[in-house]
Amino acid sequence: MKNIDTAFRHVRGFTMLVVGGSLIMSCFALYKSFSLVSQMQEKVYILANGKALEAYASDRKDNIPVEARDHVVTFHKLFFTLDPDDKVIKTNVTKALYLADDSAKRIYDDLKENGYYSGIISGNISQTIQVDSVAVDINKYPYHFRCYATQNIVRTTSVAHRSLITEGNLRNVSRSDNNPHGFLVERWNTIENRDLSTENRK
């Protein structure tokens, strides 16, 4: 009886040890599985030119400065890139107005009323813009920005270079096909727009 009792205690202890070990291993396996799934969900593979490229998901707050600057650059390039073609002007300005509030619409209406766009078409003028830098203050919402750029105005006989400085605020909005960054330019105004130089075309 003594041996049976001792053997039973040994078997019971061994069984409890096996069950406890199995539970620990199961919990560890579940933890590692969930951890691995979470890591995999942060990775996206993009197929480009026959090559698989790995991309990582991140919180928006990590990308706010980059996205905000790119939004401002995109808006200015669309608004100020003009060719002597009414359709091109309307297409670019329409895309730009999706990225800003009525302050940009008012400026567009004023330029249109003053004959700015008709002058570009009748004079066969092309206008491009080179954004030199964008300063965005992300410490206070809405985010204030200031954009420093150079306008290049190509006329039939000359090329003019103008300094352009604008400022405004950025407000968060829903992302869409027309506004992929999810920002809206508000209270946009021009601080400086002056001639830098003019050179004759050969």
From TrEMBL:
It comes from the Bacteria. The keyword Membrane applies. The chain crosses the membrane at residues 12-31. InterPro entries: Conjug_transposon_TraK. The gene is traK. This is Conjugative transposon protein TraK. Keywords: Membrane, Transmembrane, Transmembrane helix. It comes from Flavobacterium zhoui.
